Amino acid sequence: MIAIEPKRTALLAMDFQTEIVARLGQTAAAAVERAAALIAAARRAGVEVIHVVVGFRPGYPEVSPRNVAFSTIAGTGRFVTGVSGAEIAPPMRPADGEVVVVKHRVSAFAGTDLEMILRAKGIDTLILTGLATSGVVLSTVRAAADSDHRLFVVKDACADADDEVHRVLTEKLFPRQAAVLAAAELAPALGG
């Protein structure tokens, strides 16, 4: 049985933005559905829900031409804060008062105030959901583990464009730093 202390726990819903969901298509659909159900259960249980999105200012001042991943986005208009495609997908939208962390890199921690928010709220346990497993989830697992957070990765509330990469990460790599489980295994700990 998994024990979760609601006041010391946050569920991170990472990169569930309409453009990313659309790009991953059916691969993302099931993950979005499970993550939305977990968010609802977390809210009922008194677990903090924190939304993490990738976003840039107009002109992409945060993007270095040396950054291979993001330099291809610069100048496209994609993921500019407030434009279509950058918003959080409808089933995942934040409730009033929920924190939205805007990141400019892959990890939810790199250059953001996420760690400060977690410390201020006394949170040391994280439940991770997100798109994509090989992107934000992987980078956030590594950073959170290095910061000594207790981690749960909800493998079926994450998705990746490459099913084999998702499988290897959730079955071989993540278990070294996190408890990896299905949404149905976590639900009882959230009162679901």
Describe the fold and architecture.
With 192 residues, the protein is of the alpha/beta class. The protein has one domain: Rossmann fold (3-Layer(aba) Sandwich), CATH 3.40.50. It is 35% helix and 20% strand. The protein contains 7 helices and 6 strands; from the N terminus they run βααβαβαβαβαβα. Strand 2, helix 3 and strand 3 form a beta-alpha-beta unit.
List keywords for this structure.
single chain; alpha/beta; Rossmann fold; six-stranded parallel beta sheet; 6 strands; 35% helix
What would a concise description of this structure say?
This protein is an alpha/beta fold and 192 residues long. The protein has helices at residues 18-24, 26-45, 68-71, 114-120, 133-146, 163-173, 183-186; strands spanning 9-14, 48-54, 99-103, 125-131, 150-159, 179-181.
| Unreliably modeled segments | none
Biggest sheet statistics: 6 strands, parallel
Helical percent range? 25-40%
CATH superfamily: Isochorismatase-like
Summarize the helix and strand pattern as letters. Answer: EHHEHEHEHEHEH
Number of separate structural domains: 1
Determine Rg (CA atoms, Å).
16 Å
Please write the CATH class name.
Answer: Alpha Beta
Mean pLDDT: 96
Count of β-strands: 6
Write the layout of secondary structure elements.
Elements: E1 9-14, H1 18-24, H2 26-45, E2 48-54, H3 68-71, E3 99-103, H4 114-120, E4 125-131, H5 133-146, E5 150-159, H6 163-173, E6 179-181, H7 183-186
Parallel strand pairs: 1-2, 1-4, 2-3, 4-5, 5-6
